[in-house]
Amino acid sequence: MAQPLVKKDDDRDDEEYSPFLGIEKGAVLQEARVFNDPQLDARRCSQVITKLLYLLNQGETFTKVEATEELSPSADEVIIVTSSLMKDMNSRTDMYRANAIRVLCRITDGTLLTQIERYLKQAIVDKNPVVASAALVSGIHLLQTNPEIVKRWSNEVQEAIQSRAALVQFHALALLHQIRQNDRLAVSKLVTSLTKGTVRSPLAQCLLIRYTSQVIRESGVNTQTGDRPFYDYLEGCLRHKAEMVIFEAARAITELSGVTTRELTPAITVLQLFLSSSKPVLRFAAVRTLNKVAMTHPMAVTNCNIDMESLISDQNRSIATLAITTLLKTGNESSVDRLMKQITNFMSDIADEFKIVVVEAIRSLCLKFPPQVQISDEFLKQYFERRRDIPDAKESGLLHLCEFIEDCEFTYLSTQILHFLGNEGPKTSDPSKYIRYIYNRVILENATVRASAVSTLAKFGAMIDSLKPRIFILLRRCLFDNDDEVRDRATLYLNTLGGDGSVVETDKDVKEFLFGSLDIPLTNMETSLKNYNPSEEPFDIDSVPKEVKSQPLAEKKAPGKKPTGLGAPPTVPTSAADAYERLLSSIPEFASFGKLFKSSAPVELTEAETEYAVNVVKHIFDRHVVFHYNCTNTIPEQLLENVSVIVDASEAEEFSEIGSKPLKSLPYDTPGQTFVAFEKPEGVPAVGKFSNMLRFTVKEVDPSTGEAEDDGVEDEYQLEDFEVVAADYMVKVGVSNFRNAWESMGPDFERIDEYGLGPRESLAESVNTVINLLGMQPCEGTEVVPTNSRSHSCLLSGLYIGNVKVLVRLSFGIDASKEVAMKLAVRSEDENVSDTIHEIVASG
C-alpha cells in the first residue's frame, strides 16, 4: 500500500508534498454530492473521483448505501453503467467509442456479449485505428472466457490484418493466431500467406517472425533437400529497415534447432553490426544473443571478438559482463587471466541474473582450459556456484555450498543447494562429511527447508548402503517434527528404504520411484488432478498427457522505468566553470557583470613550439563578453612585463571594448592571465571576428644569476584571429526523454522552416555541420548517421542565453546529386529564441 507523503513546509524543502495529505472518507463523501448538482462542474467532479480512487487504493471500503448514493462501481444499478457504455459505443467521438469497447468487454458476461457482438465486429474493421485496436485487444481478452463467440470474428480479423495502421495490424495478427493456435495446419497456412509481403507493421512483422519460428520447429528440415521451410523469409527480414525486425529475425535464426554454420552466418553478421551501435539497447540485445550462440557454436562467434573487446569498457555493466563472458567462451587461453581480473572488478555492480551468466561462462572455461581451474576457483568461492562437470573442483565446491547454507536466509536458495548436495554428495570420496551440515538444516530451519533436508538425507541413505543405519536414526527423529510434510517425508523414506536398520542394497525401482525424474509436465499433472473426481478407482498417473499443451501468446511488458538519458558534459567541466566564475567575480572590473552563463573551451592562438604560447577562453555574460588569455613564456632568457592583448574588433560591430586587465609580469614557463572585456546588446547572440596582438616589454635574463636587466624593450607578437559564434550562446544540456520534453514544451512558440544546404560529401557531414553551428546537445544517439542512409532525423537540446530551454528536430534528405535538404522545427520557452535559432541556420 502506498505511504502518504509528508507535507511540505519552509523548513523541509527537500521532502515531497502529497496532494492527498489529510484526506478523510467522510469529507470526500460529502464532496461527492457535487454529482447531484443540476449543472455539473467537470473539474470538481474529476477531483472527487481522483480522491475516491485514492481512498480505494489505500484500502478503504464503502458500504452499499454509500456506494449507491455516490455512484460508485459497487452499486446495484449496473445496468445504468452498461447502458451508458453502450450509448458511447455509437458515439461520434472515436475516443469515446474505443474506451467504451474496452470497458464493456472487461465487465460483460456471455449474455451481454451476444447483444453487442455486431457492434464489436463493425469496430474491428472501423476506419479509425484507435477503435479497431480497442476491439481487437478486447477480443484477445474475451478469447479466454468466451472463445466460441470470438472465433466467429475470423473474417473481420482477417480483414483488419490488411489495415495500413501499424497497431491494428499488430493486434489483428495476435488475435488471429490465438484463434487458430490449436490448429497446426491453420497456423501454417496463416504464416504461408503472410510471409509473402502483406505485413508492413514492424510490430506485426516481429510477431510473424515468432510464429514462423514456431512453424519451422514443428516442421523440421526437408530430408530430401536439407532446406528449412521459411528460412529464406527469416533471412530476408535481416535486410528490413526496422531494427526490431532485424534483431527478431537474427535471434530466431540463432535459436533454430540444429542450426548450421551456413545458416548462422548472416545472423551473426547483423548482430556484429549491432555491437557497434550507439544505442545501448541494441548493443545489449546483440551481445546477449551472441552469448547464447557461443554456448553451442563458439567458432561462429569468434569473428565478433574484436567488437566485443571494445564493449568490456562499456558504461552499461550488463553489456560489459555479457561481452566478457562471451569472450571467455570464444577466446584463447592466454586471455583468460586478464578477463577474469576484469570480471572481479565489477561483480558487485551487476544484477544476480548476470552473476549466474558469469558462473556459467566460468564452467565452460574450465571445461575448455583445465589448467585455468585454479584461477576460476578463487573467483567462484565468492559466488559459491559449482558444476558437477569439473571433477577437481567438485568436493571443494560442495564444502563451500555447505558453509554457505549455514548462514543462508533465502528458503529457495537453501532448498536448491540441498537438492544439489543430495545428487552430488553421495558420489564423492567421503559422503559422510556432508551429513552434519544437512541435519543442521532439520534442526535450525523453517518447514520448507527441513522437508528438503529430509529428502537429501534419504538420498544419501539410498545411494550409500553403509550410511543407512545413521540415516535411519536421523529420519526417526524427524517423525516427531511439528510439520506434517516433514513427518510424511520421513515416514515415506523409512518405509521405502527399510526402516528396520538392516544394511541391504536399495532396490533399483525404489531409487527410481523416490529420486527419478518426473517425465510429465507439471502443468499437465496439475490440470489432471484438478479434473480428477474422487472415487473408488485411484488416480492413474499414466493418464496424464506427456506433451506440453500450447499456451496462448502472452506478451509480458517489462516494469516501467524512467529513461535515464545521459547528456553530454558541458563545454567545460563543472569544476572548471565554477573556478572561472570565482576568478572573474574576484576581479573588480568584472564583478558587476552578473552571473556567468558559459565558458568556452580554450582556443589556441599560437602554433606549437613557438616563442610564446597563448590561448583564449570566451566567457559569456548576458550583456558582456570577457576574453581570458592564458599566456606562457617559453624563452628562458626573457622576462615579459606589462603583458596585454590589443584586440581589434573592427569586424565585430556589435561589440565595444569597455576595459582590460594587463599582466604585470610573465617569467619563463610560468602561466599568466590577461583579460579584455567587451559590451554587447543584452540577450542578443552577437557574433564577430577578433584580431589579436600580444604587446609586452621584454627584458633579458642573466642565465647564471636568473636576474633580469633593468631596461627593457617594448615588443609585439601577432596572434591568430578567433570568432565569437552563435554556438557560444548555447549550453549543451541533454534530456532523458526527448519526446516527453517536446510535448511538454508545447507548440505555442514552435517555428518550422525548410532549408537547402547545397551539395555535401555525405549526410553525416551535413548533420555534424548543423550540430556544430547550433552548439546543442544531440539526444538519444541521433547524431550517428547510418552508412548509405538517404534520410536522417536528429534531435537536439540546449539552454540558450537567458536560461531559455530549446529543443530542435532536424530532418535531412540527400538526393542522387548529393544535394541536401533540411527541415528544422524549433520549440522553446520564448518565441524570440525560436526565431533566433532559424536566423542562425539561415545565416550560417
UniProtKB/TrEMBL annotation:
Domain Clathrin/coatomer adaptor adaptin-like N-terminal per the UniProt entry, residue ranges: 73-497
Subcellular location: Cytoplasm; Golgi apparatus membrane; Cytoplasmic vesicle, COPI-coated vesicle membrane
Region entry Disordered, spans: 529-572
Top-rank taxon: Eukaryota
Major localisation: cytoplasm
InterPro entries: ARM-like (IPR011989), ARM-type_fold (IPR016024), Clathrin/coatomer_adapt-like_N (IPR002553), Clathrin_app_Ig-like_sf (IPR013041), Coatomer/calthrin_app_sub_C (IPR009028), Coatomer_g_Cpla (IPR032154), Coatomer_gsu (IPR017106), Coatomer_gsu_app_Ig-like_dom (IPR013040)
Gene Ontology CC annotations of this record: COPI-coated vesicle membrane; Golgi membrane
SUPFAM superfamilies tied to this protein: ARM repeat, Clathrin adaptor appendage domain, Subdomain of clathrin and coatomer appendage domain
Keyword annotations from UniProtKB, A to Z: Cytoplasm, Cytoplasmic vesicle, ER-Golgi transport, Golgi apparatus, Membrane, Protein transport, Repeat, Transport
Domain spans labelled Coatomer subunit gamma C-terminal: 727-841
Membrane topology qualifier: Peripheral membrane protein
Coiled coil start-end: none
BP-aspect Gene Ontology terms: protein transport; vesicle-mediated transport
Biased composition (Basic and acidic residues): 543-558
Domain Coatomer gamma subunit appendage Ig-like subdomain span(s) in chain numbering: 579-724
Protein's job: The coatomer is a cytosolic protein complex that binds to dilysine motifs and reversibly associates with Golgi non-clathrin-coated vesicles, which further mediate biosynthetic protein transport from the ER, via the Golgi up to the trans Golgi network. Coatomer complex is required for budding from Golgi membranes, and is essential for the retrograde Golgi-to-ER transport of dilysine-tagged proteins.
Subunit structure: Oligomeric complex.
Family: Belongs to the COPG family.
Protein name: Coatomer subunit gamma
Provenance organism: Abeliophyllum distichum
